[in-house]
Amino acid sequence: MNVTNPSGPTNPDSNGPTFDIDRLRVKPGRPVRLADHDTRATPGWDPKNKDGGKERLKQQNKITEELQELLWANGRERILVVLQAMDAGGKDGTIRHVFEGVNPTGVKVVSFKKPSEKELAHDYLWRIHKHVPGDGELVIFNRSHYEDVLVVRVENLVPPARWRKRYDHIIDFEQMLADEGTTIIKLLLHISKEEQRQRLQDRLDEPDKNWKFDPGDLVPRSKWDQYQEAFEELLSRTSTEDAPWYIIPADRKWYRNIAASEILIQTLQGLNMTYPAPAAGIEGIEIPE
Ligand code: AMP
Ligand code: MG
């Protein structure tokens, strides 16, 4: 390990940024229309250069590995990555590819399913808060408190008067985490309805993917437009300076991976972490035989 502060050169042929992640970031207060975001786009990357993209991801994975070790060694920063998408949007695949090779110590994936009875007997942030990262940790939320303004809204699981207030709670909750030292990035993997159809069909047609098929996924699919609307409102309202949303065009898996990876890398690099100073008086020590 020879990287002390991998802020990186800007030469795209070496360890520098793949592209400016700002182009995927939702600017606070700007209304989002998802129809304006092409799910097959590859902003900052040549769409024909899929092989280069896959090669690039390998380089990025090495950088991520180094940065996560630095995060752990430095022990002062807390990183929260929130992943949301429609079913088959690629949340699991993104986690697998972006964190390939990362030392599992200090990294945790938390998947939020339908709340249990006990969870439902508390406020909706109760089960979330327990899992936020501590010092040196990186936590990935596979689904999150945003389900409480998505499925809950579309399926009418609580009255509108209740879920409508949640955008403000969420903004305040995330701001509190940020003020107390957590760096937050929120990624929407944006796929088209047709791409979802193909991926769900593949799960039916390919025997080794059958296990992934959940007939229950057809319900949200049948309410596609209502979900898109719910996404639009949360993107428009909850992207803040300290807890920004990024919309990642996700029909092309290889682009989705390099984009998610690049957002993570540039965010971690922006923290300018350093290794802790070595213990006093270690120079010249010889380990006895
Ligand atoms: P999966 O991620 O495919 O394992 O599915 C998890 C399921 O749990 C999805 O259908 C989510 O919509 C659902 N879910 C997650 N959080 C909530 C919530 N707060 N309320 C209701 N359903 C939820
Ligand atoms: Mg599912």
CATH class: Alpha Beta
The general outline is: globular
**Average predicted local confidence, pLDDT:** 94
The counted number of beta strands is: 5
The number of helical runs is 11
Taking the sheet with the most strands, its summary is:
5 strands, parallel
From the alpha carbons, calculate the radius of gyration and give it in angstroms.
Answer: 20 Å
**Uncertain regions: pLDDT < 50 for 5+ in a row?**
1-13
The CATH fourth-level homologous superfamily: P-loop containing nucleotide triphosphate hydrolases
Count of spatially separate domains: 1
**Bound molecule kinds, no repeats:** adenosine monophosphate, magnesium ion
Strand content: 5-15%
Question: Helix- and strand-based class?
Answer: alpha/beta
Bin the helical content. Answer: 25-40%
Per CATH, the architecture is 3-Layer(aba) Sandwich
Spatial ordering of strands, largest sheet: 2-3-1-4-5
Question: Between the first and last Cα atoms, what is the distance in angstroms?
Answer: 25 Å
The ordered string of helix (H) and strand (E) elements is: HEHEHHEHHHEHHHEH
CATH topology annotation: Rossmann fold
Structure description:
The chain is α/β, with parallel strands linked by helices. It has helices at 50-74, 91-98, 117-120, 126-129, 151-154, 160-163, 166-179, 193-205, 218-222, 224-238, 253-269; strands spanning 78-85, 107-111, 138-142, 182-190, 245-249. Helix 1 runs parallel beside helix 11 and helix 2 packs across helix 11 (253-269). It has a five-stranded parallel sheet, sandwiched between helices. The model is unreliable at 1-13 (pLDDT under 50). The chain contains eleven helices and five strands. The protein has a single domain (21-269), classed as Rossmann fold (3-Layer(aba) Sandwich). Magnesium ion binds at residues 87, 214, 217. Adenosine monophosphate is lined by residues 112-115, 143, 147-148, 151-152, 157.
